[in-house]
Amino acid sequence: MLFNSLDFAIFLPIVFILYWFVVNRNLKSQNLLVVASSLLFYGWWDWRFLSLIIFSTLVDYTIGRLLSTEDSLSKRKVLLWTSILVNLGFLGFFKYHNFFIENFTAAFSFFGTEIKPNSLNIILPVGISFYTFQTLSYTIDVYKRKLEPTKDLIAFSAFVSFFPQLVAGPIERATNLLPQFYKKRDFDYSKAVNGMRQILWGLFKKIVIADNCAEFANQIFNNSSEYSGSTLIFGAIFFTFQIYGDFTGYSDIAIGTSRLFGFNLKQNFAFPYFSRDVAEFWRRWHISLSTWFKDYLYIPLGGSRGGTWSKIRNTFIIFIVSGFWHGANWTFIAWGALNAIYFLPLLLTNKNRNNLEVIAKGKSLPSIKEFSAMFVTFMLTVFAWIFFRAESINHALSYISEIFSASLFTVPKFPGIGPAFRLFLLVIAFMTIEWQGRGNQFAIEKLGLKWKRPLRYSMYFSIIILLFWLGQNKQQFIYFQF
């Protein structure tokens, strides 16, 4: 079920009414409704994969209960590794089976031996990368005794399957979300209104910005051999805003929807395109995934505490694994490695934590130095996104080689350049609003709150009109494939 679909527009009010007006007096009934609604939401896509999420839930719940009564370190490790192997085993099979088979075959072919292994027509379950990491965080935290294992199977099932963030995050930690299922939740009008504003802005990002940018990004990337370097630059920039609007839009809708039901999810994006260096970008982009890898992979490897070689090794590991998490293609690995190369000079010179505050805090405009740093970081990011979007490494390299050719200095030409230019102006207006709200949880969190009601509602209706006017090019969320 897509957030930007009629199905969800019907589903959400029904669940909301049942949650607050039918089962609101009983906490367990509320949690049970969350579980049932979440399974319906997930099964709407393909009911066959409900068994996976149910099995993963039961495995990690059982292991958590066993860890609560087990003091033997060796047995605790066995339990932990059982959870890791089961969860990553499912993820590896569904997401990476054919990737390894194809590369195994290619390696033998390179040395002159032809083999014909059987590949499988595997459908990737939506959201498996997200709920797998969510349940793993629970088991690992219980193992480390950072979290008391729950005895409430319904609350744990609700934590794992919570429909707003089930299929594309944010990846919530059990330490933050699970305790919220233990406490009575009362309807908070101001929180609900704030959630609705965030949902509206998320829909704008997805439907108006991402989906329309996708039309031109797809056209240019899919026919890149036909276009000049200047046109390919446009394609890369359109994809840059497509993925930003798509993923931050999903996160805004998820966080806003959660707020309607009395839950607080952590911010997943903090205006990353206003970053002054790549380290700051990764503190602001897909925060739930970045911090997951930092806490459960980077720090256990030694983090940045060791010598130079250890720092280099750990940085490449975390970025390459992050790239591979996004998809079974060498392009994602190249994207991760490139970001590691961007990040390393900052780490090795101890400048990776220079920019912790919001850029130009308390000011309307950045300084020339801040703007220059922001522009360079943005262009490095655009360049890296080419690998992320390309169909193959060869495609990415040919795309880049054309950009750095003489055709870069020609006038961009492609079908629909007029509408594309108008969309580009809309993106500039969109990023201006994002800039004004860069210190908040989302861009329009405080915009118009002090305006008179007619003016404030005019803003809301203007956004809604744009949703219907420019929302004809409906695209699936990019991160559903991850």
Strand content: under 5%
Mean pLDDT: 90
Say how many strands there are. Answer: 0
From the spread of the alpha carbons, the general shape counts as: globular
**Biggest sheet record:** none
Q: Supply the number of helical segments.
A: 17
Unreliable stretches = none
Structural class call reads: mainly alpha
Listing every helix as H and every strand as E from the N terminus to the C terminus, the arrangement reads HHHHHHHHHHHHHHHHH
Whole-Å distance between the termini? Answer: 16 Å
Share in helix: 55-70%
The tally of structural domains comes to: 2
Tell me the radius of gyration: 23 Å
Which structural traits does this protein have?
mainly alpha
Structure commentary:
The protein has 17 helices and no strands. It has 482 residues and is mostly helical. It is globular and about 70 Å long. The mean pLDDT is 90.
What's the gist of this structure?
It is built from 17 helices and no strands. It has helices spanning 6-21, 27-43, 50-69, 73-110, 128-143, 153-161, 174-177, 189-222, 229-260, 278-284, 287-298, 308-326, 330-348, 368-389, 393-403, 417-436, 453-469. The mean pLDDT is 90.
SSE inventory with pairings:
Blueprint: H1 6-21, H2 27-43, H3 50-69, H4 73-110, H5 128-143, H6 153-161, H7 174-177, H8 189-222, H9 229-260, H10 278-284, H11 287-298, H12 308-326, H13 330-348, H14 368-389, H15 393-403, H16 417-436, H17 453-469
